[in-house]
Amino acid sequence: MSAWPGAQAAAPVRIGLDAEFGLDNSTSAQAVELGLRAAIGEINRAGGVLGGRPLELVTKDHRSIPARGIRNIEEFARMSDLVAVFGGRFSPVIIEELPTLKATRTLFMAAWSSADAIVDNGMQPNYVYRLSLRDSLAMPKLLETARKRGLHRVGLLLTNTSWGRSNLAAAEKFVAANKGVRIVQTAWYNWRDQTLVARYRTLRAAGAQAVVLVANDDEAAVLVREVAALPAAERMPILSHWGVTGGEFVRQAGPALNQVDFSVIQTFSFFQLDRQRRERILASLGAVSAVRRIEDIKGPVGVAHAYDLMHILARAIDLAGSTDRKAVRDALERVREHRGLIKTYAPPFTPTRHEALGPRELLVARYRPDGVLVPSAD
Predict the structure, then answer these.
(1) 118-130 pLDDT, tens per residue?
(2) What is the pTM of this model?
């Protein structure tokens, strides 16, 4: 795979990925892996890091089970020349991993998960860096979108996890400071619940004009099918967090998706790229996968986040001049600028800011009739 003379003799610099590969219907781990492999391919073709060492990706599957994730982090921490571990979509798993990350001083790169506590974790020094959405940005964007559409009374439908509670805190903080939108009621559901329509009806009966949904693909698909089966007058708009985009949501929702007013928050769309940059990234993705068109990319935010974050990490490794995790951690705060897919990061991180994205990157997207997610005018 290496493209320069003598590379075979150079010891690889290892990058870990701890994510939900084995979870049914999930595509998020695969999206993060695709972004990493595309970036690693580019970096290795350009000479690798540290004067000629290739990057090597090592993946582990936690199946969305925290105990498995903790074990994976422990194994990664013992691995020689492993610089950092990237994470997947599931905030509750990563939150449970935080004590192990702290104890082992393992550098963790959050490329999809959004719970505020992942970065706001109390670590000194903090070994977690995120290039992703956070809930305290997502909820204001969703609620403000509802307000701009004239939907001033919303109901929250939240997963009964640390991710759902993170979003509730963010929503309550926003409405306390913004009188243009009101939460009429909050309803909770459990992972793998087979029906959500009763909770939806409770929110509607409380006066909600729209539902702000925090869900992953499985439960969101259940809700969409149930709402589509209601009389048209009872179908409220649904504004969704982005967990739905990390799995086979479109396939599971089926034709019902075209009968429901459904929008979802994103941080990036490949459709926003100019032609030259689009062709370049498609070539890099195509070198490690069957992707040939933007429409082929599943979980686009996971791909883009991991791609940008890997390039930033590679620059930090070179700045550190070694694979020592503390040195690389410190160097991440000294990368001055990187022109990525999503934006130009100037700088990506600082000693007081371990979040690479902000409110300017947020957008609302909708599914086309063919199931492709595209930016919306909302």
Answers:
(1) 999 999 999 999 9
(2) 0.96
